Amino acid sequence: MTVPHSAPRRRSVLLAGLGGALTACSASHPIARNFSSPSPSPTGSPFPSPAAWQPGPGELQPDVKLRAVQVVEAIGTWPRGGQGAEAAGQRVAALGLPAGLAEQGGPLLADAPQAAVEVVYAQYGGLLSDSASVLVVCRQWRTGADGAPQSTGTTVDVRLSRADPRWAVTALHPAGPGRAAAALTDPATGVLAQPRIVLPPAAVADVRSGQVHDAVLAAMLTLAGPYSYQVSVVRSGHPQLVFGTDRPSDHPKGLAFDTWQIDGRPVVDPGTPADLVDSFMRAAAAAGSYNVGGPRLLSGGATANQFFSDRTHHDHVHAGFPS
């Protein structure tokens, strides 16, 4: 998430009352693996049944993230024959949320007989006292025309407001990466081919769209020398404005990326060595980022305000680049 320096385990979940059992699943801290654009599984493969995402150690206000994740899982996961906005609305209503939220599910509402969502990570796009943005990074499997599961995915910016007894989901904004470009630059091709950089589906589509600046991509490749890391958000699926302000974010301009896991260790986890995260932040600055945010405020930098820290960036490292 772009914020100027001054800006503020798995378990199965049964959604009752839907006329059948629904298991929506994923992992809170999965190991590194590559994600790609929609691709079929071998014919005859069992339909994936990942586990429901649960907050891991170190999360701030984990109930807020869990609320956001559950509505995405409810919309994007259904048993055979449970497709459609109406059925999704019933699953959302079972969570005690307005059924109409399902209509904002966008690409999660594919016309497929069966689907399952795996949440890769839920990252804050903003965390204030009475409102929040949670970026739910997910992969989705859908039954294809041949009956085999096909893998795709998106990132959903879920907006919430404080309520009692649980925070309320007020809106969903799925990623809109745009169409793939006819040709890509060398840095874009390099990032897509680099196994030490794990991009979720929406971020893959961002790079393929040609709308991510080469300076960002070159920095990502530089960081892949000493580190392997998982990116959460690049361009799409992120708030247009720095959350809680009227300032444009660098992400929608293709001038930033966020990292939630470094060398297999989640940034948010208190067991992750501070030196690992701090060194990654300094390496991002050395690679050209003018605006590096993370869980700790670092000293030094090329400018007095090159590094920043706040509650929103407790769970990831942000690297923003000049235009």
What kind of assembly state do the chains in view correspond to?
single chain
Low-confidence stretches: 1-34
SSE topology string: EHHEEEEHEHHEEEHEEE
Distance between the termini: 16 Å
Radius of gyration: 19 Å
Task: Please bin the fraction of helical residues.
Answer: 10-25%
The global form is globular
Distinct helical segment count: 6
The average pLDDT value, as a whole number, equals 89
In this structure, how is the largest beta sheet organized?
7 strands, mixed
Q: What fraction of the residues are assigned to beta strands by DSSP?
A: 15-25%
SS-derived structural category: alpha+beta
Please provide a written account of the structure.
With 323 residues, the protein is of the alpha+beta class. It contains six helices and twelve strands. The strands form two sheets. Strands 6, 7, 8, 9, 10, 11 and 12 form a seven-stranded mixed β-sheet that branches. Strands 1, 2, 3, 4 and 5 form a five-stranded antiparallel β-sheet that branches. Helix 1 (62-76) packs antiparallel against helix 2 (85-93) and helix 3 (186-193) runs parallel beside helix 5. The longest helix is centred in the first third of the chain and has 15 residues, at 62-76. The chain is globular. It starts with 38 loop residues before the first strand and ends with a strand.
Task: Explain the layout of strands and helices.
Blueprint: E1 39-40, H1 62-76, H2 85-93, E2 115-127, E3 131-143, E4 149-161, E5 168-174, H3 186-193, E6 197-198, H4 201-208, H5 214-223, E7 229-233, E8 256-262, E9 265-266, H6 274-286, E10 291-294, E11 307-309, E12 317-320
Parallel strand pairs: 6-7, 10-11
Antiparallel strand pairs: 1-4, 2-3, 3-4, 4-5, 7-8, 8-9, 8-12, 10-12
Helix pairs in contact: 1-2, 3-5
